[in-house]
Write a structure and sequence with these properties.
The structure is a homodimer. Chain A is mainly α. Chain A has 2 domains: 70 residues, Orthogonal Bundle (Arc Repressor Mutant, subunit A), CATH 1.10.10; 134 residues, GntR ligand-binding domain-like (Four Helix Bundle (Hemerythrin (Met), subunit A)). In chain A, 65% of the residues lie in helices and 3% in strands. Chain A contains 10 helices and 2 strands; from the N terminus they run H-H-H-E-E-H-H-H-H-H-H-H. In chain A, strands 1-2 form a two-stranded antiparallel ribbon. In chain A, helix 5 runs parallel beside helix 9. The longest helix of chain A is centred in the middle third of the chain and has 25 residues. The radius of gyration of chain A is 21 Å and the shape is elongated. The termini of chain A are far apart. At the A-B interface, helix 3, helix 5 and helix 8 of A face helix 3, helix 5 and helix 8 of B. The structure holds a DNA duplex. Chains A, B: Keywords: DNA-binding, Transcription, Transcription regulation. Chains A, B: Pfam families: FCD, GntR. Chains A, B: InterPro entries: GntR_C (IPR011711), TF_FadR/GntR_C (IPR008920), Tscrpt_reg_HTH_GntR (IPR000524), WH-like_DNA-bd_sf (IPR036388), WH_DNA-bd_sf (IPR036390). Chains A, B: GO terms for molecular function: DNA binding; DNA-binding transcription factor activity.
Chain lengths: 236, 236
DNA sequence: TCAGCAAAATAACTCAGACATAATAGGCCA
DNA sequence: TGGCCTATTATGTCTGAGTTATTTTGCTGA
C-alpha cells in the first residue's frame, strides 16, 4: 500500500526509520510514552519481535529509553546522538529546525579549517594527487553536474585523509553529508555568488605549500562562500 | 564471577557491550564473520532473541552489518560511529590505541577553543554565574578531589551552554567524557606541571569581557596544559 | 497523619520453535 | 566458457508462553 520505503530495508529497519523520523521531527516529544509492545506492534501491523528490534535501534542512538513497568519513552533531546549518521539523515527528511542547520554549518566551519590546517602539515604525495585529480574533475565538469559535486566531495575527503585524524574524519564526513542534504534540498536553482573553484584551488595550494595558516584561511573563505549560497541569516 | 557490569543491563545490553568491546579492542577484526545465530547464541548461553537484539544495537552503531545468507560481520573501521558515547566508552575499557587518544585530544583542541569563542559572543548572565560558581568550587576543592573535577566539568559544560550550538555541545560532551576516562585511567599520580586554575580564570575573564580572541587563546592554553599532563609524544 | 513495608499489577524482557525470505554457491545446460 | 536455474543457508519474521524488575497500591503501625 503505502510503501514509500527505499530499497529493501527489513521491517525492523523500516519501522526504526519511521519512528525515528517522527521523533526528530517533533511529532513525538521527549517524555512521550509508547503504548505497550503488543498494542504498538499490532497497531503497526508487525510482530513484537520486529517492533522490539526497531526500538533497540532507536535506543542505541539515544532517542528512546525503555524500562520494565515504566514503558518506553522518548528521551530528552540532549541525550540524542544528534551527529549519528542515521539521526542526521532522518532529521533532514523532514524540515529541520533552521537553528540546527546553522549549528551544523557553524560546526563545519570549525572542523574543516582545522582539517585543512592539519592536512597542510601532514599531507603526502598520494593525498596531493587525489586533491589535484578531484580539482581537475571539478573544473572539467562544473558544480552544476552531479559528478562534479561528487568530485567536490572527493576533494574534501582527500583533505580529511591528509589531516590524519580519524575522529575528525568520521565527524566531518557525517556533518558534510548533512550539509549536502541541505544544499540538495534547496535545489541550487540560482547561480552561486561567485565561482567556487578559485577558492578550492587556494586551499589546495596552501596544503601543497605546507602553509597551515594559509590553508586554514582559504578553507574558511570557501565555507563562507558556501554559507552565502544559503539564505540563513548571519549570526552574531 | 566476572560481573564487572555497571548497574542493571539487561541481557541484550550486556552482550552488546561485551561484543562491542571485543570489536573496538581489535579482538574481532573488520571482515570477521560471526557464526550463525543459533550457534552464536547458544555458545553465549542465551536465546536467539537476546542475541539478535544485541546485534541490532551494534549494527545501529555501525560496528557490524548483517545480511541474509552472507552472515553477520564486523564492518570496516571507517564505518564505525567512533564518537558514539557507547563506542567511546567501550574503546576506553580496553587499552585504546595511543594514536586514537591523540586524535581525540586534537579534536578537543579544535572544538573547545571554538566553543569558548562562541561563548564570548553569546553568553548571558546565567552562563556567567554558572562558570563563576564552578570556578569557585574548583578553587575551594582543588582538582585532586573528585568533586573538584566535577566542578571542572561543570565549568566546561557552562561554556558549551553559552556557546549556543547544540551540535557542538553534544560532540564536546562525548569527547570530553572520553578524555576524562584517559586522565582517570592514568590515576593522575603526579602533580600537574602548573596550577590549572589561573588558566581557567583567564578563559572565564575572556568570556566575561566578550573578547572572543582572548577566550579562544586562553582555552587553547588550558588544553595545552592538560595535554602536557599526558605523556603523549607531541605531533608535528 | 505519615512513615515504612509488603503485595499486586504491569510493562519490558527472555525463551522456544516454526516458517518466510533473500542472497549466495554450485551445478546444469547451451 | 557463459549464463541461467536450483539448492543451500543464514538472517528475518511470527507466535505464544513464561520471567523479571519496577512502580504503584494498600496495608500496618507508630
Amino acid at each position: 500500500m503505502d510503501d514509500a520505503r527505499s530499497a529493501s530495508p527489513r521491517i525492523h529497519g523500516a519501522i526504526a526509520h519511521d519512528i525515528g523520523v517522527e521523533i526528530v521531527c517533533g511529532l513525538r516529544k521527549p517524555g512521550d510514552v509508547f503504548g505497550g509492545e503488543i498494542e504498538a506492534s499490532e497497531a503497526l501491523g508487525i510482530s513484537r519481535t520486529a517492533y522490539r528490534e526497531a526500538i533497540r535501534i532507536l535506543a542505541a542512538k539515544g532517542l528512546v529509553e525503555s524500562r520494565p513497568k515504566a514503558g518506553t519513552r522518548v528521551t530528552a533531546r540532549h541525550r540524542w546522538n544528534l551527529l549519528d549518521p542515521d539521526v542526521l539523515a532522518w532529521t533532514f527528511e523532514g524540515e529541520p529546525n533552521p537553528e540546527f542547520i546553522q549549528d551544523l554549518f557553524e560546526l563545519r566551519s570549525v572542523i574543516e579549517p582545522a582539517a585543512a590546517e592539519f592536512a597542510a602539515r601532514r599531507r603526502n604525495q598520494v593525498h596531493l594527487d587525489d586533491m589535484r585529480s578531484a580539482l581537475d574533475d571539478m573544473e572539467r565538469l562544473g558544480l552544476a553536474d552531479s559528478e562534479g559535486r561528487a568530485a567536490d566531495q572527493r576533494f574534501h575527503r582527500a583533505i580529511l585523509a591528509a589531516a590524519g585524524n580519524e575522529a575528525l574524519a568520521v565527524l566531518a564526513s557525517s556533518v558534510g553529508a548533512a550539509v549536502s542534504w541541505t544544499t540538495k534540498y534547496k535545489q541550487r536553482n540560482r547561480a552561486l555568488p561567485r565561482d567556487p573553484l578559485p577558492d578550492h584551488v587556494l586551499v589546495y595550494e596552501g596544503i601543497l605549500a605546507g602553509d597551515a595558516a594559509a590553508a586554514r584561511q582559504a578553507m574558511t573563505q570557501l565555507l563562507h562562500l558556501a554559507l552565502a549560497d544559503m539564505d540563513l541569516p548571519p549570526r552574531m
